[in-house]
Design brief:
91 residues; alpha+beta; two-stranded antiparallel sheet; 4 strands; 15% strand; extended
């Protein structure tokens, strides 16, 4: 988050919302509570990472998926589709 050009406020607030709803994110620090509206700590006091379940179920094998070139032909490759072992809706 240190490299974001506009600061980390939007990233930290999104992380707090996702970490409070997901079981795939291991969190450390005060993330607050969404339902009574308790605020989270400042972004410098919170940490998050993927759980071992998330690493096993969500992360994909790059040898099994198709990549397409980016719109300008640079070496940035885009996923043609996103294969996962465990289908999960994004919310």
């Amino acid at each position: 988050m240190k490299l974001h050009p506009h600061g980390d406020a939007s990233i930290a607030s999104a992380l707090v919302v996702v970490a409070n709803k997901e079981y795939f994110i291991e969190r450390q620090g005060n993330f607050g509570n969404l339902y009574p509206g308790d605020p989270a700590s400042a972004s410098r006091y919170i940490e998050a990472r993927l759980t071992p379940l998330a690493k096993r179920e969500i992360l994909f094998n790059p040898e099994l998926t198709e990549f397409t070139e980016s719109y300008d032909g640079r070496k940035n490759w885009n996923l043609f589709y996103f294969p996962v072992k465990f289908p999960r809706p994004f919310y």
